[in-house]
Amino acid sequence: MLYDVVIVGGGPAGLSAALALGRARKRVLLSDSGPRRNAAAEHMQNFVTQDGTPPGEFRRIGREQLARYPNVESREVRVESISGSRGAFRVDLTSERVDARRVLLCTGMVDEMLPIDGFRELWGHSVIQCPYCHGWEVQDRRWGILALAAGASHLVPFALQARGWSRDVTVFTDGSFDVAPDVRAQLEAAGIRLETAPVSRLVARDNRLEAVELSSGAAVPCDVLFAHPPQRQVELVRALGVELDDDGYVRVDPMKRETSVPGVYAAGDLTTRMQAAIFAANAGTHAAAMINLELSMELALAGAL
Ligand SMILES: Cc1cc2nc3c(=O)[nH]c(=O)nc-3n(C[C@H](O)[C@H](O)[C@H](O)COP(=O)(O)OP(=O)(O)OC[C@H]3O[C@@H](n4cnc5c(N)ncnc54)[C@H](O)[C@@H]3O)c2cc1C
């Protein structure tokens, strides 16, 4: 089976791309398999018209709307490998091989859980990553921010911004780096507490965070902990050999959204640290428009439209 475009990943980026390409009358396979990034979250916030929609419901609506387009196939199938080149890709699915003129990667990122007792269990509920996504729901509660060495340069802006949602903010460095005197001074000026001792565990009751326990045995009361654990690309993306930036995100041409591998495009979380469902959806539509433009020109000139 020859598709114009195989889209790998059916989150906000892949769904949006499939919609735009479907409406442009391209033959599309949208493949999605495996856990979605926000699987642990109960509600998806900050997406206009969908604020508060459960993530699974968002995807269900997306697939339902795609079903109106007979030229779009939406399948719960995993892409195992991609070979070939621009115009003639071979895409190995779990059960069969298909051909594609273009490939669009919308595979998201994998969050690596930190080896702190309680972190994995509380991820997506009391341990969260984005105040725009969940800050409103926990406004004026006791906020903790887990600052890791890799994100030390973002500590001050993130912590000061957090004060817009809560007056009760504590930064935990988990003993991972030395806090410079000017950073300490800025946190203090904003009324933000600083705990530099290693974190030994997250104390929870009924799956809700109650305190962050330090190696000293002290328990700092907290209702929510913001954290940005390291992220990695899925194996398929690593195996493809597309160029990554210094932070591990897929490099794309900002206008065309094409990766370093000709004919392979990327959209959504895997390309940026600016991660939100609406950003991913926007990038998916953008990539789709660029792919469609290129394909339509090519096919029209070849007399194949
Ligand atoms: C806990 C949590 C809560 C969040 N809450 C919000 C929120 O409230 N509001 C908001 O805007 N953002 C939120 N986000 C961020 C948001 O979820 C992401 O920015 C968004 O989902 C990114 O969309 P995406 O399409 O790029 O990737 P994803 O949504 O991660 O989708 C990628 C899909 O590709 C699939 N896939 C990967 N490899 C393959 C393969 N080989 N074959 C087939 N399929 C594959 C994955 O299984 C996954 O289903 C949250 C994130 C987290 C971690």
Give an overview of the whole structure.
This protein is of the alpha/beta class and 305 residues long. The chain has 2 domains: 2-111 and 230-301, FAD/NAD(P)-binding domain; 119-227, FAD/NAD(P)-binding domain, CATH 3.50.50. The chain has helices spanning 12-23, 55-66, 119-122, 131-134, 155-162, 181-189, 235-240, 277-301; strands at 2-8, 28-31, 72-75, 79-85, 88-93, 97-105, 110-111, 127-128, 143-146, 169-172, 193-195, 199-205, 208-214, 219-221, 224-227, 231-232, 264-266. The strands form 4 sheets. Strands 1, 2, 3, 4, 5, 6 and 17 form a 7-stranded mixed beta sheet that branches. Helix 6 (181-189) links the parallel strand 10 (169-172) and strand 11 (193-195). Helix 1 packs parallel to helix 2 (55-66) and helix 1 (12-23) packs parallel to helix 8. The longest helix has 25 residues, at 277-301. The chain starts with a strand and ends with a helix. The mean pLDDT is 96. It binds flavin-adenine dinucleotide. Residues 8-14, 31-38, 40-41, 44-47, 78-79, 106-108, 111, 124, 129-130, 133, 234, 236, 268-269, 275-278, 280 line the site of flavin-adenine dinucleotide.
